[in-house]
Design a protein that fits this description.
130 residues; alpha+beta; Thrombin, subunit H; six-stranded antiparallel β-barrel; 18% helix; globular
Length: 130
């Protein structure tokens, strides 16, 4: 058993956001963004289909180092924006994958931070946060 803990440069906050991941072969996977790095680029997405992926499966396969597309709808001042952003897969983990957003628009980062802050406050009130 590995007892070393991953060192993170930035704190992560919980987040709940439905997303679509577009694999390099253009296959779409639905998932839920579960946490967001306060540094502005790290995102963990729970994606059951990817978690069950077998090595021999080629269609829709996503592996560490892949450049993928993330699509989602985020609240912005005056409504909701449908967003597409490029991301690089950092690694696949139990139940999902970690990714780094590449060249995200500032408005997206602000919206994700705001959503993470609201999620953190809500889970704290329910006794599920730190």
């Amino acid at each position: 058993m590995n007892t070393m803990r991953e060192r993170r440069r930035y704190t992560r906050q919980p987040l709940r956001l439905t997303v679509w991941l577009i694999a390099p072969d253009r296959t779409a996977h639905s998932g839920t963004a579960r946490n967001y790095s306060l540094g502005g680029r790290g995102l963990f997405v729970a994606c059951p289909r990817l978690a069950q992926q077998r090595p021999a499966e080629a269609e829709g396969r996503i592996v560490a180092g892949d450049d993928i597309e993330l699509c989602c709808s985020v609240p912005v001042s005056g409504g909701v924006a449908n967003v597409r952003v490029n991301a690089r897969v950092a690694g696949l983990f139990d139940g999902g994958l970690g990714m780094e957003l590449t060249n995200p628009e500032v408005e997206l980062l602000v919206a994700l931070q705001d959503m993470a802050n609201r999620t953190r406050k809500f889970t704290h009130v329910l006794g599920q946060g730190n």
